[in-house]
Design goal:
This protein is an alpha+beta fold and 681 residues long. Strands 14, 15, 16, 17, 18 and 19 form a 6-stranded antiparallel β-sheet that branches. It has a 5-stranded mixed β-sheet with strand order 2-13-10-3-9. A hairpin with a 2-residue loop joins strand 15 and strand 16. Helix 1 packs antiparallel against helix 2. The longest helix has 24 residues. Bound molecules: nicotinamide-adenine-dinucleotide and zinc ion. Nicotinamide-adenine-dinucleotide (NAD) binds next to helix 1, helix 2, strand 3 and strand 4. It is an enzyme of class 6 (ligase). Belongs to the NAD-dependent DNA ligase family. LigA subfamily. It catalyses: NAD(+) + (deoxyribonucleotide)n-3'-hydroxyl + 5'-phospho-(deoxyribonucleotide)m = (deoxyribonucleotide)n+m + AMP + beta-nicotinamide D-nucleotide.
Length: 681
């Protein structure tokens, strides 16, 4: 690029970045994804590095972006509020550490404080003589917005500092500061964010793209009573100007802040060995999915304040700290179309067909749209740019449209009135969000899903059968209900594409073996609503045979530990239907074992005497498969966490069970940890 071209590109980049900053920081409503934004910023940095003469002090690389909005009084920060330099890999972190060593001298003794980077917005809280007097946003780093009245409504922000009487820590100042500016993050928990968006959508209001924008948008309200109604939280991670006491390290500062009554994250750590810093970051990245809030990375800080001052600031980032960024979890892309899927129980769910987009290194083409109301309330239209979230191992879903990016070509979408697979009119029970195809016995789409479920690993585990085969057999009319699998003849499969003699023999042998699976797995395979592995085992243990279960009355079922009224009602309802009774008889006639006598194949005794509780979504195993695995290795699975629980196995979006486990100090495993216990990995 020639010099004028470079200058022009730099100008373009700055203009684009400023425009995106305005939507992000002032309106709290981004119009591009962070990845797109970061790419522009990286390009600008690279051009400026190659042409330092073109750097201007107002370039977005040189100062914190964001302009204080006019509805707030302005606050001049006595000490600028900075951003953080980014690292994406271990190599980046090592390069940062080397630079620090170079600047401080190779023989310097360095301690590091590692803190989670909770994704919210930075604020500064000023306390004079122990009382909260002013709170400000970061703004452009020099001038922020006065949001004191709004901050006063947040419960976790103390209005007066705690007296230090009860604290006897020789490393901490014994007095209160005459003046202290406490810096930290206002954030919103993931579950609160989702509830807030649902509430806003139901009221026809604009939703937020992510928890960070939700926190910023909720704090930056003209009317503090709106802020008060939002579930905002605060945690403190540093200080600005301090008078009357001297703080000499980040670690001491955090403990002092805690003593003064500020919430400080429990997971902050101090290390002197950089290898431990790296290990801790890795450990955290793995825990990310189990946290109740969004953490977009880890912040690593040089502990010693004198060393911090020596290192100083470059542009908008302190040299003494760095943010290790975790892979992205959301992106923006075009919604090309909406299709619907018919599930095993007839529930019809909308599915977003997306312009392929990378999220955290994975290409996402489809995402859930939950249900009809979700689409209608959020006014999601075909052709919209949408925010797609892919957190952990949960199915990616559409958060909402990017309204500011519409050009008028978007089309509203109507939920179908009839089942796309069988043409029956769709029905919706009052109070339910889901539309259903109630043509249970005829609908081919439901049948395919039922067959898929029946043959899955947690049910009858028929190797060689999967979605494709289920679709094929249903389409050819070879399978009209799940029992038909046991009546398949080799000659029916001969000549089908991909079905050679060997494959046919293997498949039929696998089907034959499935006649003798333990009863609870047959019950799981039937797909009774609310009956998974745990309930199925409880039924078998209590009643012993399928006939006894089938003929049990509601009250009898409710007596069984682990079977509540809803589950009991669902079981009674299932077996009251003549088509289900007929199916059972057909299975019986095919020689499928229906009493509890079959011995489960024990794989090992690795988990003997251990009790497990499963929570959240695991990356590869379904709930049934995980239970089955645990049981086949001698363990037990129960539904609720107690002191008797040996392990909680937690996946993405784990809820109160995980919290309970942490409270009781019960070890928590992820899927890999479970497999390791069994020796499978
Ligand atoms: N999509 C868009 O249009 C758009 C526009 C502007 C910025 N952005 C995104 O915003 C980010 C840049 O924002 P930024 O300048 O606020 O930087 P940043 O969020 O990457 O890091 C700095 C911030 O981290 C926060 N933080 C959390 N925990 C902390 C801790 N323990 N110690 C210190 N700080 C902590 C503070 O609020 C601090 O201001 C980029 O990732 C960019 O993608 C996106
Ligand atoms: Zn149908």
């Amino acid at each position: 690029m020639s010099q004028p071209d470079v200058a022009q590109r730099i100008a373009e980049l700055r203009a684009l970045i400023r425009r995106y900053d305005y939507h992000y920081y002032v309106l709290d409503d981004p119009i591009v994804s962070d990845a797109e934004y970061d790419a522009l910023m990286a390009e600008l940095r690279a051009l400026e590095a190659a042409h330092p003469e073109l750097i201007t002090p107002d370039s977005p690389t040189q100062r914190v972006s964001g302009t204080p909005a006019s509805q707030f009084a302005k606050v001049q920060h006595p000490q600028p509020m900075l951003s953080l330099g980014n690292a994406f890999t271990t190599a980046d972190l090592l390069a940062w550490r080397d630079r620090v060593l170079r600047l401080l001298g190779n023989d310097a003794t360095i301690a590091y404080v590692v803190e989670p980077k909770i994704d919210g917005l930075a604020i500064a809280l000023t306390y004079r003589d122990g009382r909260f007097v002013q709170g400000a946003t970061r703004g452009d780093g020099e001038v922020g917005e006065d949001v004191t009245a709004n901050l006063r409504t947040i419960g976790s922000i103390p209005l007066t500092l705690h007296p230090l009487d009860g604290i006897h820590d020789p490393d901490l100042p014994a007095e209160l500061p005459a003046l202290i500016e406490v810096r930290g993050e206002i954030y919103i928990r993931t579950a609160d964010f989702e509830a807030l968006n649902n509430r806003l959508a139901a009221a026809g209001e604009r939703i937020f793209a992510n928890p960070r924008n939700a926190a910023a948008g909720s704090l930056r309200q003209k009317d503090p009573s709106i802020t008060a109604a939002r579930p905002l939280r605060f945690f403190a991670y540093g200080v600005g100007p301090v008078e009357g006491v001297t703080l000499t390290s980040q670690w001491q500062t955090l403990r002092y802040l805690r003593a003064l009554g500020f919430p400080v994250n429990q997971d902050v750590r101090r290390f002197t060995d950089f290898a431990e810093v790296l290990a801790y970051c890795e450990e955290w990245m793995a825990r990310r999915d189990t946290l109740p809030y969004e953490a977009d990375g880890m912040v690593i800080k040089i502990d010693d304040v004198a060393q911090q001052n020596e290192l100083g600031v470059v542009g908008r980032d302190p040299r003494w700290a760095i943010a290790l960024k975790f892979p992205a979890r959301e992106a923006m892309t075009r919604l090309l179309d909406i299709t619907v899927n018919v599930g095993r129980t007839g529930v019809v769910t909308p599915n977003a067909e997306l312009e392929p987009v990378q999220i955290g290194g994975v290409t996402v083409r489809n995402a859930s749209l939950h249900n009809a109301d979700y689409i209608a309330q959020r006014d999601i239209r075909i052709g919209d740019y949408v925010i797609v979230k892919r957190a952990g191992d949960v199915i990616p879903y559409v958060v909402g449209p990017v309204v500011a990016r519409r050009d008028g070509s978007e089309r509203p979408w109507q939920f179908p009135t009839h089942c796309p697979a069988c043409g029956s009119p769709l029905e919706r029970e009052p109070g339910e969000a889901a539309w259903r195809c109630n043509n249970f016995s005829i609908c081919p789409a439901q049948l395919v899903r039922r067959v898929e479920h029946f043959v899955s690993r947690g049910a009858l585990d028929i190797v060689g059968m999967g979605e494709k085969q289920a679709e094929l057999f249903v389409q050819l009319g070879l399978v009209r209900d799940v029992a038909d699998l046991f009546y398949l003849k080799p000659e029916q499969l001969e000549g089908l594409e991909g079905f050679g003699p060997k494959r046919i023999a293997n498949l039929l042998a696998a089907i034959d073996a499935a006649r003798h699976r333990p009863l609870d797995r047959l019950i799981v395979g039937l797909g009774i609503r609310y009956v998974g592995t745990v309930a199925a085992q409880a039924l078998v243990n209590a009643l012993g045979s399928l006939d006894a279960i089938m003929n049990a009355r509601q009250e009898e079922l409710e007596q069984i530990p682990g079977i509540g009224p809803v589950v009991a009602a669902s079981i009674v309802d299932f077996f009251a239907r003549p088509e289900n009774r007929a199916l059972i008889e057909k299975l019986r006639a095919a020689g499928v074992q229906m009493d509890g006598g079959t011995q489960r194949e024990r794989q090992s005794d690795a988990l003997a005497g251990k009790t497990f509780v499963l929570t959240g979504t695991l990356p590869s195993l379904t709930r049934e498969q995980a239970s089955e695995l645990i049981i086949s290795h001698g363990g037990k699975v129960t539904d609720s966490v107690s002191k008797k629980t040996s392990y909680v196995v937690a996946g993405a979006n784990a809820g109160s069970k995980l919290a309970k486990a942490q409270q009781l100090g019960i070890p928590v495993l992820d899927e890999a940890g479970l497999l390791a216990l069994i020796g499978e990995r």
